[in-house]
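Database export, one record per block. Field names are fixed; values are copied verbatim from the stored entry.
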Amino acid sequence: MTKRGSKRSLGRTMTLVLRRRDWLLAKLFAGAGLLLLASALWYIWPYWQLSGDFATMPTVEPSRLYARSYRVFPGARLTPEALSERLTDLHYVPAVEGELEPGRFRAGAQQVAVYRRSFPSTTADRGGDLLVVDFDGDKVIGLKRAERPVREAWLDPPLIASYYGDALLERRPAPLAEIAPETVRAVLAAEDASFFEHPGISFTGILRAVWVNLRGNGVVQGGSTVTQQLVKNIYLTSERTMSRKLREALLAVMLEWRYSKEQILEAYLNQIFWGRSGSANLIGVGAAAAAYCGKEPRELSLAESALLAAMIRAPGSYHPVDDAPAARARRDFILDRLVALDWADRAAAEAAKREPLPTPVAALSRRRAPYFVDAAAAEAERRFGTGDLADAGYVLLSTLDLGDQESAESAVREGLEELAEKSERVRLKKEPLQAALVSLEPATGAIRAWVGGRDFRESQFDRAGSAQRQAGSAFKPLVYATAFERGVATPATLLEDAPLTLESGGKSWTPMNDDDQFHGWVTARTAVEQSYNLPTIRLAIATGLPEIVATAKGLGLKANLRPVPSIAIGSFEVAPVDLVTAYATFANRGVLPTARMLDGVLDAGGSPLPASGGPGAGAGKAVLSPQTAFLVTTLLQGVVDYGTARSMRTLGLADPVAGKTGTSNSRRDNWFVGYTPERATVVWVGFDDDSPTPFSGSKAALPMWTKFMITVRPAGGYGRFAAPQGIRVVLIDPVSGELATERCPEVLSEAFPANRVPQIVCHLHGGRNSLPIDPQVRAEVEQERKAGGVSGWLKRVFSRRPKPSDPPD
């Protein structure tokens, strides 16, 4: 082979080698590219999936419990000043001029106009409109909603408590359209002025952060956009590493590809951590606006918006109270930044700088009626099937009147302090004296106040609903109700107050009166007013002990009652809420109300839940005749006016009231249960360990009861008890219980069933020629004398003379 041929062959070989190399390199690069692409896809795919979940991420919001809304109606006793005070308590802001916006009101001498916020309600009135209230002095004379006359209107229900999960997150999500434009601009000025221009990451921001970090020898500053911050809050940890920043930037770009700027901005404003309110973590602008300003996001002013924006970087360092100078300086910097960006007018910004920093409202995590809060949660589960309320988004609309609740707590607290001052034994005892109070409306069963103990922080045991304590003499009205209902007695029936020994279970029982005295024959009225035990026990036996048990159960007492003689003087244990419900039946003309804490429950979407576990509002069952209920009421009015509760009058309550004191053996339990037509209230006082107290129901429970009822007294006072049909009132002698004559030294107007009016004149002070002094009875006698002659009348009237040895009628 020639030399030239050898070179040509070598060239072809080299060409083949080079081609093969290029092919291998191409294959290698292609494989590497595919591998890189697969790796990138493998790396990116989870984040792509995460970004896809963004739109469907659930917003966890606590369940909330609200107090009763305040009702305004024509005829209500209310002044413009009082209504303005209520609105201020609900964080409405006075407006001097211009059109009213939501959350603002204007008050004049005879009119108050308020633009109500929207609020949850079980009625058709959910606010969100202009309400105008016209006054004539201290009386409402007209209402207009959206310029239309209405018969009633409601104010926002006050928040009592929130039911948080373990993370204690306070969220109040707000759509972007419901956030003040000033707030949106202030946040962007503080965090990301170029938000609407970048693709999710800001290269200038990154370069600036890199330069600062290089100079600071470490990760000192981030160049995060709003989108990156959102990604970090939702998906990532807060570690300050380059790998985390890379993932953050990647996800931010993906979010920008898949969602609009408005969606991202709305999510960001609802995800920012804005510090704490009490023990709750504030998440989002809705929670921040409520905690720091007492407002909805759409109501925020320029100054308030700048402050909230200033706090995003470090909520703890710019708190308006704890760090006021730093907060003010940072707020003013944001205001200047808004002016520099041409997003705010210079004059408006300067005016905003002159505004004081807002005073945060009471901690959103605070439970304002803690015993009620726990009991309401149990009722929500029982009646509405809610399950665990934590972070479930339910809205519980309760019957609690916040003003009444505060009055109840004050009455209990001050009452216990006064009792401790009076007794060294109480002061020195390791376990503190406790009390419970429940107040409800007899007609509806709506609970207006609920105090389960002296201090929820020290003891969470709810004595109002869970304690079982001996009722003592507070049980006696149920004995008389049974006797009246079965026709065994009337208020004027004579009962023997004499020594009594009974055999029960192979043991002898010799009960005594509290004063250790015997009083002979007394009327049922006197026995109740003076709380005599022996006449009541005798009446219980004559009426039938099983019948008394049946009445007690019919009146809602859940205790394990047995038909034994001691039941007549309250030897069995009852819960305060059950006892006051029984008494409310007397006020409600014999209809047992269903004691309830909730008017309704709304789900997270605002739809009402059906009651599934018991009767609701308005449910009631007739368990006594109206006549029996009224007769018992008249006896219990006597207890207040002349009997063991007469000190109520010296304490300052002069309105018509019916009630009964109660003191158990060794004074372990002290009660007062009383009612008016509008309200039934119980107070119990005692020790948790069942130790004796040095008090009685009239000394321990009655003063607290009276103080509370005076405080919640309606403007026109408590009403009178109206007699139902079938009741007749006649004049009798209070000692003999018979028709009074002109010779009787004392005369009493007594109520009777119409068919059980006494038919004989007083044998103690009468005579053959005596006539009843009751005008109506006297007229009947005169008519009978004309129709049938005197002899028949004399025979009927004087045919029977009770003797001290006679059994009671």
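Remark 1: The longest strand covers residues 130-136.
Remark 2: Residues 3-56 form one domain.
End of record.
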